[in-house]
Amino acid sequence: MPPGAGTVTGIRVSIFELLLISDICQIQASYDRLNFAASNIHIVKSMKKPTILIADKDDLTRNLLEHQLNRLPYTFVLKTCTHGLEAEKIIHTHQPDLIFMEVELPGKNAFDIIEATEVALAIVLMSWQQNYAARAFEYKVADYLLKPVESHRLDAVFERLSARNSSLFSQPATRSFPKKFFVEKGARLIGIPVSEIVYLKAEGDYTRIYTKDKQFYLSTTGIGQLEARLDPRHFLRVHRSYIVNISCIKELYRDLNRFWISLQNEVEISIGRSYLPVIRSMML
Question: Where are the domain boundaries for CATH 3.40.50.2300 in the chain?
């Protein structure tokens, strides 16, 4: 056999040809790895939660809209802001999938923000006035909503978006919420069925949980964290310090300039001003 030659399955090839075959195999393997990585990136992107931005200077509108969104059967990342320049920064940085934006934002109004935005986004403009509607649709917005935003109009927005992009909001995610909380009491952890909770009250960094049998338990978890674990279809934030079980509300009444909730265990809770739109949305 001449020097510099070898035999592979009975075929005589040179060392140069063997090295060439080896290089081709390595290139193919690298190419396969890149394709696999790219497919994984695509999968991760497709599994990414959509981002929703609420840009409105009015606390009442933001709280009502956030509550209505949380009642929908979708998972998403929610961002909020109160200023036009802040909204513009979030849009450029995060490119939200859906934007609810007040027309009359301070600092920079919605129309100026849309003109400065190069990426096509799904934008819903909001106002207390009807007179911006014609101009809004010149900018090809997804919708124009009068405040306070009504639930059926919000549902219509998502139906239209689903028709345009079937992968964004058309597959509702099943959100699960715990049916029982375990709270430390002495040396034990006491199980509290969530359905037995009447209301929760913030107490500094802790939360008092009051139940139908007129007992209370002190949780070391803050009320904001507990709110995220409660089903918004059954529990309602009515004050920065209170969350109530909707099924335990007996009546609502007004005393001078304040609204109150009366619960079934004879407890009365004042409704915070920024939470009033949520309460009004329940009235027929």
Answer: 51-164
Tokens of 183: 């709270």
> Does domain 51-164 bear CATH number 3.40.50.2300?
yes
Cα separation of 63 and 238, whole Å?
10
Give the helix, strand, coil percentages of the chain, each rounded to 5.
35, 30, 35
Domain with CATH 2.40.50.40 in the chain: 180-280
Distance CA 272, CA 238 (A): 6
Domain 180-280 has CATH 3.40.50.10860: no
* Region of 153 on the Ramachandran plot (φ > 0 left; ψ -120 to 50 alpha; else beta): alpha
DSSP state, residue 177: -
- Tens digit of each residue's pLDDT, the chain (284 residues): 445 444 444 445 555 554 555 555 565 555 555 454 444 444 344 457 889 999 999 888 888 888 888 877 777 889 999 999 999 999 999 889 899 999 999 999 999 999 988 767 789 999 999 999 989 988 888 899 998 888 788 888 888 887 776 566 655 555 678 999 999 888 889 999 999 999 999 999 999 999 999 899 999 999 988 988 898 888 988 898 999 999 999 998 888 778 889 998 789 999 888 787 777 777 76
pTM more than 0.70: no
Calpha distance 35→29 (Å, rounded) = 10
